[in-house]
């Protein structure tokens, strides 16, 4: 009887895992689409992220505080900590869109794959657990793929550097969010994170614009339309899906799955902007290495699940499971 309850729990957990993976992949596709939006929106990267955070923060407060009333009361200490994570997320987006604008969509997106390497190092340090050598090796191979592109396509140097900085910053907030989500609901974490990111970026923005002056501060009608898509679809919806997935998946799995973001984004860039005409064979070689890493990780996950099932059957060969 005890085994039946354990098996039922495992089946429920498996269903939750499948749902989490589905939500994660929808979020990854939306993240890939942000690369297209980064080029469609003509504002510079700092102003673009500032408007994104403004629209997203206002939308979340209206949606979660006024209508659904899903916001929890949390301490000022938690608000400050979540806001600090929000600033990290804001700077991740600034450097990400900077990579796209200084290079192109494909280069900016493929550099984001370095997030797996940084996660393999940062997650054990932050969560105080043993480093997984397999994860670290996969991350190092990904870095090797990016190096192939960097070494032979030097015209994209600035964009690649910004992309790698973006990947480092991008590995941090999923790790911290996972800890917050163990005791605070998704809506509260995301609302305060986006709000904190907006406030801290607003303080930094005047100094940023002194170094990178812009000719205009207000978006045109077309830019405003794409900013709404970026904020409502690719932010509010995508963040919620990713946060839900983090409840059942490790930060490394989430970040490594986000290596599909370049796949979706680059395919869109090929279709919309014909970027394949401007990329050398070294880009495709480096990209192939990164895709190989992702495929191998999927193989390892599937093999691990099969071994776990085989072990259960070996231990209880005659058990019939009835849900």
- N-to-C span: 12 Å
- Total beta strand runs: 0
Strand content: under 5%
Secondary-structure element order, N to C: HHHHHHHHHHHH
Globally, the shape reads globular
Characterize the largest beta sheet: strand count, sense, and whether it forms a barrel: none
Number of helices: 12
Structural class: mainly alpha
What does the model show?
By secondary structure, the chain is an all-alpha fold. It has one domain (18-315). Helix content is 81%, strand content 0%. It has 12 helices and no strands. It has helices at 2-40, 45-67, 76-102, 105-111, 115-127, 133-152, 157-180, 186-211, 221-246, 251-257, 260-273, 281-315. Helix 2 (45-67) runs antiparallel to helix 3 (76-102), helix 3 (76-102) crosses helix 4 and helix 5 runs antiparallel to helix 10 (251-257). The longest helix has 39 residues, at 2-40. The radius of gyration is 21 Å and the shape is globular. The two termini are 12 Å apart. Residues 1-12 and 319-323 have low confidence and may be disordered.
Strand and helix map with partners:
Blueprint lengths: L1 H39 L4 H23 L8 H27 L2 H7 L3 H13 L5 H20 L4 H24 L5 H26 L9 H26 L4 H7 L2 H14 L7 H35 L8
């Amino acid at each position: 009887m005890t085994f039946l309850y354990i098996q039922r729990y495992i089946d429920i957990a498996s269903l939750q895992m499948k749902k989490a993976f589905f939500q994660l992949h929808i979020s990854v596709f939306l993240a890939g689409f942000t690369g297209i939006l980064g080029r469609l929106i003509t504002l510079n990267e700092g102003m673009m992220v500032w408007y994104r955070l403004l629209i997203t923060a206002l939308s979340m407060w209206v949606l979660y505080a006024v209508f659904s009333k899903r916001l929890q009361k949390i301490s000022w200490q938690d608000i400050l900590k979540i806001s600090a994570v929000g600033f990290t997320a804001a700077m991740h987006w600034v450097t990400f869109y900077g990579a796209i604008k200084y290079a192109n969509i494909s280069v900016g997106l493929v550099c984001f794959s370095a997030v797996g390497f940084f996660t393999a190092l940062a997650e054990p340090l932050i969560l105080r657990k043993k480093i997984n050598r397999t994860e670290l090796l996969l991350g190092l191979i990904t870095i090797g793929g990016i190096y192939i592109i960097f070494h032979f396509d030097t015209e994209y140097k600035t964009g690649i550097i910004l992309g790698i900085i973006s990947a480092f910053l991008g590995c941090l907030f999923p790790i911290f969010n996972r800890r917050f989500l163990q005791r605070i609901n998704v809506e509260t974490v995301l609302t305060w994170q986006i709000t904190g990111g907006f406030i801290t970026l607003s303080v930094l923005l005047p100094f940023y614009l002194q170094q990178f002056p812009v000719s205009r501060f207000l978006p045109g009608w077309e830019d405003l339309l794409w900013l709404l898509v970026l904020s409502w679809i690719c932010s509010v919806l995508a963040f919620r899906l990713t946060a839900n997935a983090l409840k059942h998946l490790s930060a490394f799995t989430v970040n490594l799955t986000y290596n599909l973001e370049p796949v979706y984004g680059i395919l869109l860039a090929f279709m919309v902007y014909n970027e394949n005409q401007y990329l050398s064979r070294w880009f495709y070689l480096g990209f192939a290495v990164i895709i190989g890493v992702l495929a191998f990780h999927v193989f390892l996950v599937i093999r691990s699940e099969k071994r776990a099932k085989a072990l259960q059957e070996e231990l209880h060969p005659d058990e019939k499971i009835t849900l």
